[in-house]
Write a structure and sequence with these properties.
With 354 residues, the chain is an alpha/beta fold. It is built from ten helices and eight strands. The protein has helices at 6-12, 43-62, 77-86, 104-123, 131-148, 170-178, 207-226, 240-243, 280-295, 346-353; strands at residues 16-19, 31-35, 38-41, 67-70, 91-92, 160-164, 183-187, 198-201. The radius of gyration is 34 Å and the shape is globular.
Length: 354
C-alpha cells in the first residue's frame, strides 16, 4: 500500500495555493496551473518532497537527533503540539523567541529558572514569600511556560527544524541557517523555497492539509526512534545529507531549495560542532610557521633597535651624531652634551639678560 496517494491529498485540500497576486515567482516549478485567480499546487512535487523529507527525518531520528517542530498559526497550534508530543520531539507553538538557536545558553537558563519556580511551588516554599512576591513569581512562571515549555527537553542544537509556513517563521529559518541546521518546510505558493533544504509544497493554512502531512512525517520519526542504535555514532557523522553539505544549499526543480545562506563545516555532535574559521592573520602565521618547519629553521624575531638610534623618518631636530673631524683640523667647538634649554617665558628672558 502506498504511503500517501494523490486522492488523499486532493481530499484534504493540499493542492490549493494562495491567490495568484500573492505568489512568489520562485515557486513556479511547484505550481501546476491557475484557476479562478488561485494557484493549484503540483501534487507530484508535493509527494516528491514529502518522500524525501520522510526518509531524511527517519534517518535523523534513528541516529538519535531531535527534530524541532515549529508552527505558530492559531489554527495549527493544538495539532503541532499533539503530533510533536506523540513523537516525543520539542516544538514551538507560541511566538518564536529570538535566539532560541543562536543564543541557546540564555534560553536554557530561563528553562532552569522555570524548573526552580515549579519546585518552589510543589514544595510549598513559595508560601514563605509575601503575596506580592508570590504573584510576581507565578506570573513569571506562566510567561516562561507559555513561551518555552515546548522546548523544555531540547538538548542543544536540534538535528533538523520542521517548519510550517517558513514565510511566517522567517526568524526561525534564518537562525537555523546561521547555525547550519537543516530545514524541512511545508510551504505555500507565497513562500521562498530557496530558504529551506527540503520543501514540501502544500496548503499550509488548512488544518486537514497540514494534518495529513505532519502526522505521516511524525510516524516516520517514531519508526526511526524505534530502530535507533544507542551505540551508533551521532547523526552528523552518519547522515550523508549533513556530513557532505555543499557551500550552497540545493537548487533545481524539485530539489532542496537553498543558496541564500552559506553552509558551514559540520561534523560530530551538535553540541561540539565548531562554527569558527581562522582569520587572515592566523592563516598567514600558520603558513609562515609551516614554511620555516619545512626549511628546518625557526624564523628569528626581529632584532631590537639600538638605544639612541634615529627612527626611519627622523626630524631635523633629532639628527644622528656626526663623525669627529680629522686630526689636522681643529674642531669648531668641543663635543659636550647639550645643556637644557631655558624655559620660555618672562623668567627665562630675565635669566638670559642677566
Amino acid at each position: 500500500m502506498a504511503i500517501i496517494s494523490i486522492e488523499e491529498l486532493v481530499e484534504a485540500g493540499v493542492h490549493f495555493g494562495h491567490q495568484s497576486r500573492l505568489w512568489n515567482p520562485k515557486m513556479k516549478p511547484f505550481i501546476f496551473a491557475k484557476k479562478n485567480l488561485i494557484h493549484i499546487i503540483d501534487l507530484k512535487q508535493t509527494i516528491r518532497g514529502f518522500l524525501r523529507a520522510r526518509h531524511f527525518l527517519g534517518r535523523l531520528a534513528s541516529s538519535g537527533a531531535q527534530i524541532l517542530v515549529v508552527g505558530t498559526k492559531k489554527q495549527l497550534r493544538e495539532l503541532v503540539a499533539s503530533e510533536a508530543k506523540r513523537a516525543d520531539q520539542p516544538f514551538v507553538i507560541e511566538r518564536w523567541i529570538g535566539g532560541t538557536l543562536t543564543n541557546y545558553n540564555t534560553i536554557r537558563k530561563r528553562l532552569d529558572h522555570l524548573i526552580h519556580l515549579e519546585e518552589l511551588e510543589e514544595n510549598g516554599q513559595m508560601e514563605r514569600f509575601s503575596k506580592k512576591q508570590q504573584s510576581r513569581l507565578r506570573r513569571e512562571m506562566r510567561k516562561i511556560r507559555r513561551n518555552l515549555d515546548g522546548i523544555r527537553n531540547l538538548k542543544g542544537l536540534p538535528g533538523c527544524v520542521l517548519v510550517i509556513d517558513p514565510k511566517r517563521e522567517e526568524i526561525a529559518v534564518k537562525e537555523a541557517a546561521k547555525m547550519n541546521v537543516p530545514v524541512v518546510a511545508i510551504l505555500d505558493t507565497d513562500c521562498d523555497p530557496k530558504m529551506v533544504d527540503i520543501p514540501i509544497p502544500a496548503n499550509d493554512d488548512a488544518l486537514r492539509s497540514v494534518q495529513v502531512l505532519l502526522s505521516k512525517l511524525m510516524d516516520a520519526v517514531i519508526t526511526g526512534k524505534a530502530n535507533m542504535d544507542e551505540n551508533a555514532p551521532r547523526f552528523r557523522s552518519e547522515i550523508p545529507e549533513l556530513s557532505g553539505r555543499s557551500p550552497r544549499r540545493g537548487g533545481g526543480r524539485g530539489g532542496p531549495g537553498g543558496g541564500r545562506y552559506p553552509s558551514r563545516p559540520t561534523g560530530g555532535r551538535a553540541d561540539t560542532v565548531s562554527f569558527g574559521r581562522p582569520t587572515d592573520d592566523e592563516e598567514g602565521k600558520a603558513a609562515v610557521a609551516k614554511g620555516a618547519a619545512e626549511a628546518g629553521e625557526t624564523p628569528a624575531p626581529p632584532a631590537p633597535a639600538p638605544e639612541g638610534a634615529a627612527p626611519e623618518a627622523a626630524t631635523p631636530e633629532a639628527k644622528a651624531p656626526e663623525a669627529p673631524p680629522p686630526a689636522d683640523t681643529a674642531p669648531a667647538e668641543p663635543v659636550t652634551p647639550p645643556e637644557p634649554k631655558s624655559p620660555e617665558g618672562p623668567e627665562g628672558e630675565e635669566k638670559k639678560e642677566g
